[in-house]
Amino acid sequence: MKKAQIVIGLGFGDEGKGITTDFLAQQNPEAVVIRFSGGQQAAHTVMIDDRKHVHSSFASGALRGLPSYFTEHCTIHPVFLLNEREELREKGGNIELHIHPLAKVTTPFDVWQNRTSSKNLEDGTCGKGVGATMKRHESPYKLFAIDLIAPKAMLVEKLKNIAYYYGFLDKDEVEKQLQSFLEAIDAIDWKIDDYHYLNSFDHFIFEGSQGILLDMDHGVFPNVTYASTTSKNAFEVCKYLGIENIEMYYVTRSYTTRHGSGWMSNEKPLNLKNNEEETCIFNEYQKHLRLGDLDYNLLNYALKLDSAYVNSTKKNLIVTCLDQIDKEFKWENLEMKFDAIFGSYSPYSKDFQQLF
């Protein structure tokens, strides 16, 4: 029987979805890991012995040796993808990546828009062009993964029109911006495959991006992501593949984080320990990683919200970073009932520990 395990963040992102996915990949080496939202803005950190990798354009089972699949709900950027592929290859990871034909392609002009728009900078951006890409796809100026293997003249014409869409009128500047982008496209052996590719697998690990509280339909607008960060997209794929055995892995840190601007409850400085390997550090676009006490009301809200999108046979709660704070996680404050509850990883320890 086919089985799916869906990993979802309950907060504003940075909960520990990458290490949870890696944990499941270790248990199920025959699986494929599917990204069903977001794209190159992800920063999912996995550490295996002395190897550390931040997964963005590959799913978080790659360092463990599993193949990656990006659905049509994801974005890709060829230059970022090529750079990460080389890093992953050097670390002995699996660089096999299959991409749905209708995944959206981020161009240099989308990245420029994300990094220079005052509204984007005010509302919050990772500076990787994802939001601009999703917004552009509401217009006629679309670019899909399938276009990367189209005749070169057609691809270049589409790219030039996207440049003009953003106001790049200088042809020499457009050519300059496209040079490394086109070189990256040529350097990659693209595997553009629809869902039929997945029929050869019986086990599927779905890796979410960001968190439910940033969902474009349910987060506090305008500081949201252009993606469905609930189980919505993953469950749709499960229905398409005929998967009924679905197990949920809901992930939260033992405290609240938010990288970037926007509403956040219980925000206050925290004295953390054992967090020397924190991936989410200051950058010029998202600014600081903000911290606060865990809000159990928000946690319950996110859990109940996601249950509207997915029918699962089993639910698990993953709590990470328990070793970074002195406060105890209060399991009794959760209204949802779980078939199993797992505890932490310090993002930098090797294993999960069962709490019972």
TrEMBL record:
Binding site for IMP: 14-17, 210, 225, 287
Protein location: Cytoplasm
GO biological process: 'de novo' AMP biosynthetic process; IMP metabolic process
Active site (record annotation): 14 (proton acceptor), 44 (proton donor)
Presence of keyword Ligase: yes
Keywords: Cytoplasm, GTP-binding, Ligase, Magnesium, Metal-binding, Nucleotide-binding, Purine biosynthesis
EC number: 6.3.4.4
Record has Ligase as a keyword: yes
Cofactor binding comment, as recorded: Binds 1 Mg(2+) ion per subunit.
Top enzyme class: ligase
Pathway: Purine metabolism; AMP biosynthesis via de novo pathway; AMP from IMP: step 1/2
Residues reported in the UniProt entry to bind GTP: 13-19, 321-323
GO MF, one example: magnesium ion binding
Predominant location: cytoplasm
Binding residues for Mg(2+): 14
GO cellular component: cytoplasm
PROSITE patterns: ADENYLOSUCCIN_SYN_1 (PS01266)
Cofactor(s) needed: Mg(2+)
Family to which this protein belongs: Belongs to the adenylosuccinate synthetase family.
Subunit structure: Homodimer.
Full protein name: Adenylosuccinate synthetase
